[in-house]
Amino acid sequence: MATRKQNSTYTRNEAFMVECDLTYAVNKIGGRWKILIISKLETKKYRFNELKKEFPLITERMLTLQLRALEQDGLVKRTVYAEVPPRVEYELTEMAMAFGPIFKQLSEWGNKHRHTLPPAVPLKK
Predict the structure, then answer these.
(1) How far is CA 43 from the centre of its chain?
(2) Residue 20 phi/psi, 5° resolution?
(3) What does the alpha-carbon distance between residue 5 and residue 7 come to, in Å, rounded to a whole number?
(4) pLDDT at 4
(5) What is the pLDDT of residue 103?
(6) Other CB atoms closer than 10 Å to residue 28's CB: what's the count?
(7) Of 1, 17, 98, 115, which alpha carbon lies 20 to 30 A from 28's?
(8) Angle, helices 34-41/60-72, rounded to nearest 10 degrees
(9) Cβ(51)–Cβ(40) under 8 Å?
């Protein structure tokens, strides 16, 4: 069984990924859909199909995966109501609500620099 050297680049990069606060935060909200989902849930609770309608380009499977990841990371709370048919609602946790000012600043930055940067790659339909 091969062992990794303690001073290898791979080990140093692993340590950076674990200890870097910015990398940790971006890892939790990174990806094409997580920021959009979080920003949509900022305004109210949503049911799955309501979220699906808000993002017509996302597949049901991808939305499910993103919601599960956000729930696992403690950013989204999933509430299942004992009704027939079952009703499930998604809402942000207090921890995720703290992203509000950060997203507002990112949005302002995007608005300010949108015309000075190369255009974004369009989403595939």
Answers:
(1) 16
(2) -80, 115
(3) 5
(4) 46
(5) 87
(6) 19
(7) 115
(8) 70
(9) yes
The predicted structure's pLDDT at residue 57 = 93
Hey, how many other C-beta atoms are within 10 angstroms of the C-beta on 3? Answer: 5
* Average per-residue pLDDT for the chain: 84
How many CA atoms does the CB half-sphere of 75 hold within 13 Å?
Answer: 24
- pLDDT of 1 reads 45
Contact of 88 with 78, CB cutoff 8 Å: yes
The domain segmentation of the chain, as residue ranges, is: 32-109
Contact call for residues 76 and 90 (beta carbons, < 8 A): yes
The CATH number of 32-109 is: 1.10.10.10
Residue recorded with tokens 């940790």: 24
- Give the model's pLDDT for residue 76: 97
C-alpha to C-alpha distance for 92 and 39, rounded to whole angstroms: 9
**H-type alpha helices, 42-86:** 48-54, 60-72
pLDDT tens digit sequence for 34-86: 999 999 999 999 999 999 999 999 999 999 999 999 999 999 999 999 988 88
Q: How many CB atoms lie within 10 A of CB 37?
A: 26
